Automatic annotation (TrEMBL):
This is Succinate--CoA ligase [ADP-forming] subunit beta. Pathway: One-carbon metabolism; formaldehyde assimilation via serine pathway; Carbohydrate metabolism; tricarboxylic acid cycle; succinate from succinyl-CoA (ligase route): step 1/1. It comes from the Bacteria. PROSITE patterns: SUCCINYL_COA_LIG_3. Residues 272-391 form the ATP-citrate synthase/succinyl-CoA ligase C-terminal domain.
Length: 397
């Protein structure tokens, strides 16, 4: 789960991290009051969307002006003006995709004088199963580009969970960033704060780009991007409350309400499968036969008829879906339950694309009978290979 920059900064501030004073603004008419609560001489107005690269992004609407999603302004009035231009408009960055994202909130921040911009991230390193630090002097830019062109400018290390964070980790970061004097102490303290927040709140990633040295020589968190482990959110009601549903794919949101494991993808074949392994195999075999999956969907072991109906509705609501492959190996999940769900869903939402169904396992005969006795137009498949071949053929001809 992702949160906005201003929420991430408030969270890090509660742990003691240095951030600027700022105010989130949802309505243009509130912008002037919010900006007026800060002294200036610089006010930064920042679009709040769950995507990076805002500064270098651009708006779709001409009346948003030709500046990106991060605007430096020199007065309260100008800050309010820029906030008004961004709210309700669509920001396109290299992370949003061409459709962009609507800006429903902006953050007005007390501007900082910047001496240097640096890069810092904490993440879960899958190779070592530890929390890793990624550090670079090349802040404010695309870290992927730095990794590609000048990998020697990136320091990577992980923290042994048996010892946890130690001051020497912080000193390592400080030296990699070329910090001196009091900044080293600030860095040791800040890294400890970030590590604590990361572990306590079950973060998946914490990216600060840029971390800056201000014109007064102090370290400050100027941008913050945080994502949390979705499977741990139940332990953090405070974090769950920060969820902004308008930022999420509506299909993924509907799926999460029904406890379905659903990920939207770009392809044309909708998949309904039970078990994550079979879902992966189904996606692979669709690709093998020359098409692309439109989603990953695992309906789980204990799915009910209602859950299956909802899953089917989510798949058919995707306009990219040109065909559907239902691939069920009934173990705990019974084939007749799936069949009932499919029939109920088709009755409710109709079926405008070809549907291939492959059922195998527990109650397979009952399942097939339910489908055959309904008037749903189904192409039956015998096995995984047959199912994939048939749906790709039905869609691609
Ligand atoms: P992003 O483009 O989505 O990553 O947004 P950032 O918050 O990282 O802002 C982009 C860039 O705007 C930063 O790298 C800075 O160069 C600049 N910027 C952001 N806030 C300030 C500020 O308070 N003062 C100054 N001088 N520049 C800022
Ligand atoms: Mn940034």
């Amino acid at each position: 789960m992702n949160i906005h920059e201003y929420q991430a900064k408030a969270l890090l501030k509660s742990y003691g991290a240095p951030v600027s004073d700022g105010r989130p603004v949802m309505k243009a008419e509130d912008a002037k009051t919010a900006a007026g609560e800060m002294d200036g001489p610089l006010w930064v107005v920042k679009a709040q969307i769950h995507a990076g690269g805002r500064g270098k992004g651009s708006f779709k609407e001409a009346d948003a002006g030709d500046k990106g999603g991060v605007r430096l302004t020199k007065s309260v009035e100008e800050a309010a003006e820029e906030a008004k231009k961004m709210l309700g408009r669509t920001l396109v960055t290299h992370q949003t995709g061409p459709a962009g994202k609507q800006v429903n909130r902006v953050y007005i921040e007390d501007g900082s004088g910047i001496e240097t911009e640096m890069y810092l991230a904490l993440l879960v390193d899958r190779q070592t199963s530890r929390i890793g630090f990624v550090v670079s002097t090349e802040g404010g830019m695309d870290i992927e580009e730095v990794a590609e062109n000048t990998p020697e400018k990136i320091l990577n290390f992980t923290v042994d969970p048996a010892t946890g964070y130690q001051a020497y980790h912080g000193r390592r970061v400080a030296f990699a960033l070329g910090l001196t004097g009091a900044q080293v102490k600030q860095c040791v303290s800040l890294m400890g704060i970030l590590y604590k927040a990361f572990t306590e709140k079950d973060m998946e990633m914490l990216e600060i780009n840029p971390l800056i040295v201000t014109d007064k020589g102090d370290l400050k968190v100027l941008d913050a991007k945080v994502s949390f482990d979705g499977n741990a959110i139940y332990r953090h009601q405070d974090i769950a409350a920060l969820r902004d549903e308008t930022e999420e794919d509506p299909k993924e949101l509907a799926a999460s309400k029904y406890d379905l494991n659903y990920i939207a993808l770009e392809g044309e074949i909708g998949c309904m499968v039970n078990g994550a392994g079979l879902a992966m195999a189904t996606m692979d075999i669709i690709k093998l036969y020359g098409a692309e999956p439109a989603n990953f969907l695992d309906v789980g072991g204990g799915a009910t008829k209602e859950k299956v109906t909802e899953a089917f509705k989510i798949i058919t609501s995707d306009p990219n879906v040109k065909g559907i492959l239902v691939n069920i190996f009934g173990g705990i999940m019974r084939c007749d339950v799936i069949a009932e769900g499919v029939v109920a869903a088709v009755k409710e939402v109709g079926l405008k694309v070809p549907l291939v169904v492959r059922l195998e396992g527990t109650n397979v005969e009952e399942g097939k009978a339910i489908i055959n006795n309904s008037d749903v137009d189904v192409i039956a498949a015998d096995d995984l290979k047959d199912g994939a071949e048939k749906i790709v053929k039905a869609v691609k001809g």
